[in-house]
Amino acid sequence: MTVQEFEKLVNKLEKQASANPKLYRFKVIMLTGLGFGYVALFLSLFLFLMTISIAMIADGNFTFGNVKVLLLTGTLSFFIIKALIVKMEMPEGYYLQREEAPRLFEIIDTLRLRLNAPPIDAIVLDSEFNASVAQISSYGMFGKKRNVLAIGIPLLSTLSQQQFTAVLAHELAHISNSDTALGARIYRLRMSWSCLLHSLEENEQFGTFIFKKFFQWFYPRFDAYTFAMARQEEYAADRSAALATSSPAMGEALTLISVAAPYYYRDFYSELFEECAKTNSVPQPYSNFTEKFQSLSEQKSAEYFNEQLAEESYMTDTHPCLRDRLAALAIEAEVPEKPKESALNYFLAFPGRVINDFNKMWVDYNQDSWKEEIENFNDSKQRYEELTNKQVANLEELLEKAYLTVEFNSLEAAIPLYEEIAEKHSEDPQTAGALLTLAEHYLESRDTAEKGIRLIHLAMSYDWELRLPALDLLCGYYYETEQSELFENTREELEKWEEIVEASNVECDFIQPKDHFITHDKDSRELLAGINQLAQYKEITTAYLVRKQLASIPERKQYVLGLDLSLPKSTDLDEAEEALYEKYINGLGEFEDTCVIILNDKKDLRKSMLSVENSLIYSVSDKEQAS
Questions:
Q1: Which H, E and C letters describe 473-541, residue by residue?
Q2: With bands split at pLDDT 50, 70 and 90, how would you rate the model's confidence at 626?
Q3: Which has the closest alpha carbon to 352: 157, 536, 616, 180?
Q4: Contact, 436 vs 527, CB < 8 A?
Q5: pLDDT tens by residue, 263-277
Q6: Are 456 and 470 in contact (CB under 8 A)?
Q7: Does the pLDDT at position 12 exceed 80?
Q8: In Å, what is the CA distance from 318 to each residue of 9, 263, 399, 474?
Q9: Which range is most confident: 67-81, 87-101, 180-194, 592-606?
Q10: Is the CB of residue 32 less than 8 Å from the CB of residue 222?
Q11: Gap between the Cα atoms of 96 and 505, Å rounded
């Protein structure tokens, strides 16, 4: 199913969901049952055949065929059962007790009675600009479910008591309408199906095709049906929250979030970083955010608000756009006023202590990287001043000067530099990013738009990674200038390219022994830096590095770093892998565009990598001999 077909299906299904929500919900449940039933049917069949094989072997019919059937059905049954038991971890954060936020617990109890919602089992504070309810199961798809409410400190710091109460009502309405329960089941099923296919493909089991063909047909339709249902549930939760509190409170919460959230995620940390770099001070992000948001100018607030108001509902987010949500509530769209007292101060008994704890946790976690970034910032600023005071001739310095001028001055100040780059060095692929930046500037004026379009096509020819933003830029330009034919053609090209990139991402994520590996082309400096990082881990005994040849985007570079580990005999590799992968991905940063794989239980993959010339880049024995 293409992106366009998916979009048409969702639009059609949204109308059905809006016209008859109960009937549509029943259809989703039936579709979910189809997917689950398909897996359950084959699991039952495999278990039945396995039982017969065991019985026949027990009766003395010990034949090669019986053993083969037993091994095959037993293995497939194991992978299916393992996939069905997908445990959902409890959210990370600070778990509140009733005595720490008595008003918060009281208002939740009040809203629960109004909305006929089940109890909240835990409230957790985190660093996101969001609030959500999740149902966590102890044993994957089975076991007792716990309702967990997650609240972001930035959100709590931004909204007033009434506005945040409306947000709470929205989240509790999801549980009241049984959205979260069904949504959680759907999410766990989707994870189970994904785990099942991944396990079968990774282990190259015979039964993969039984599930693969079905889910290739089933997944897109299931996604479309659940997407449309989820969007209708957002509207329903808004309406329930407005009835439980008030429409103005719900509308004010939505509009205030539309200003504060993009500020928090896009600009706040860069502003905070620049201030701390100048004063060489330690940031207190959660305290600083409240102060800086309160001092945000009306003009800047209006810019964020109008930008969000202009957004349309997209197929990448089940939440409707701001304009549609306000219209559904019959609320006039206007820039919100900032509240004088935050919900944080109202609902928490000791708000200062909680904020200080979050500040401290942030500093403890980010201290080293923050100091390094400040040093880099100061070095960059010094370099900018050096380049500003001299004439640069070579391309490398010209690109550097243009980039630093944007960072420390403005894009307008850097335009002459970008124009010089385009005029003198446009034949060099290194200029791709600079050409795209200049092209975007040129598209703002009809007089220079044609030049901008030519530069966009040139930039795309140099760098596959720029193709997506470049086509998106062209789509926006053709749409705004009402060039419908060019818009439709470019949009179609963009959608096709998105599918190609997605296919390429899948190629990069799934590494198999049958993949086409070639000798890596890492330069010696990068390779040496990477080997030095490998040497820090005593358990790594051997490392192989190859490049995977991608079919979807051949020019895209994807490397595979295979590691042999020496682990204690008692180590359960399945349980240890997640922590090991996280450690290596964070610690082996010198290997860019590289997938790290532990080879201990992957003999076929090790054999494939070892067959590539110069794939062995590190071994403990070589290191010992060298010393």
A1: HHHHHHHHCCCHHHHHHHHHHHHHHHHHHHHHHHHHHCCCCCCCEEECCCCHHHHHHHHHHHCCCCCEE
A2: very low
A3: 157
A4: no
A5: 999 889 888 887 887
A6: yes
A7: yes
A8: 15, 22, 40, 26
A9: 592-606
A10: yes
A11: 39
Burial class (CB in 10 A: 0-12, 13-18, 19+), 530: buried
The two three-digit tokens of residue 361, written as one number: 């946790």
Tell me phi and psi for residue 513, to 5 degrees.
-60, -30
d(CA 530, CA 587): 10
Smallest Cα–Cα separation from 257: which of 342, 155, 340?
155
Cα distance between residue 396 and residue 376, in whole Å: 19
Angle between helices 351-388 and 269-279 (to 10 degrees): 70
| pLDDT confidence of residue 192 | 59
Q: Quick one: which H or E segment has residue 583?
A: helix 573-587
| Per-residue pLDDT tens digits for 87-121 | 667 788 899 999 999 999 999 999 998 888 888 99
For residue 28, give the nearest of 211, 145, 191, 178 by alpha carbon: 178
Q: Confidence band (pLDDT; 50, 70, 90) for 310?
A: confident
> HEC states along 371-401?
HHHHHHHHHHHHHHHHHHCCCCCCHHHHHHH
Comparing C-alpha atoms, which of 565, 538, 510, 541 is closest to residue 617? 541
Whole-number pLDDT of residue 221:
82
Residue 584 has pLDDT above 90, yes or no: no
Distance between CA atoms of residues 515 and 485, nearest Å = 40
- What single string gives the DSSP state of each residue in 332-371? ---PPPPPSS-HHHHH-SSHHHHHHHHHHHHHHHHHHHHH
Integer Cα distance of 109 and 612 in angstroms: 64
Q: Please identify which residue in the block is written with the tokens 């019986």.
A: 66
Residue 179 has pLDDT above 60, yes or no: no
Average pLDDT across the chain, whole number: 85
**Which amino acid type is present at position 532?**
N
Tokens representing 372 are: 């390094």
Q: For residue range 476-486, list pLDDT tens digits in order.
A: 899 888 898 99
614/599 Cα distance (integer angstroms): 17
Contact 237, 177 (CB under 8 A): yes
Q: How far apart are CA 533 and CA 529, in angstroms?
A: 7
Residues with Cβ within 8 Å of residue 423, at least 6 apart in sequence: none
CB-CB contact of 384 with 408 (8 Å) = yes
Instruction: Please give the Cα distance from 7 to 23 (Å, whole number).
Output: 21
b vs e for 276-291, b when ≥16 Cβ sit within 10 Å of the residue's Cβ?
bbeeeeebbbbebbbe
